[in-house]
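Explain this one:

_____
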Amino acid sequence: MIRQFIKHQDTWEADLNNLTPKHKLARRQVIQHYIVLKDVFDRKYAPLSVEQIKNWHRTLMKEIIPNSGDYRKDGCMAGMKIFPEPTLVSEMMDSLVKQYNLFDRNHFSPYAVAAWLSHAFVSIHPFSDGNGRLSRLLGNYVMFSYGFPYPTPISNVKRAYMKALRLADRDYSNGRDTSHLAFIFLENSNMVFSNYLANKNLTQEFK
C-alpha cells in the first residue's frame, strides 16, 4: 500500500473513491500515518512547537474527524481517567513543548525522554481523537532526534503499553514514573535492530 502511495502520491485521495467506506477509512489512516511519520523524521532535529503538533494532527486525522488539528472543546475521559478541562489544554500544551525543548539531552536517555513526552502528551489529551496515535509518533520524534534510523513500533505490544500508561498515571502526583513505558521503547527499538540484523540480505548490503 505504501509503495503504491509513493508511486501515485499526487492522486492517492482520488483513488480512495473506488473503495468501500470501510476500506477507504483504513487506507486513509495508513497513508496519513505514513505521511506524518515521514515528516516527523524529516523534522527530527527541529525544535518542537505547538503549531507543528497541530499540523501533524491535522494531517493524521484529515477527513477522519471534524476539526482535525484543533484542540478539543469538550471534556473527555477514558475509563476512570478524567483528562484536563478544555480551557486548560492550550496552556498545558505550551508548557509541555517549552519543557521538552529545555531538556538537557546529555543527562537523559532517548527512551526516558520518548516515554516522558509520549505520556505527558496523551495525559493532556488535547484533541478529540487521535491522541494515542500522535503520542506514539511524538515518541518516535524523540527517538529520531537521538539518531535512531527506524521507527519504533509500540502497537504490537498493546497490552504492555496500556499497562505502562496506567502505571505512569498511578504516580502522576509524584512526577509520573514512566520507566515502564521507557522500557517498552527500549525493548521495541532493540527488536527493530535485531530484525534488521537478521535480514538474510544484509550481507549483500555490505559487499
Strands lie at 77-78, 81-82. The mean pLDDT is 87.
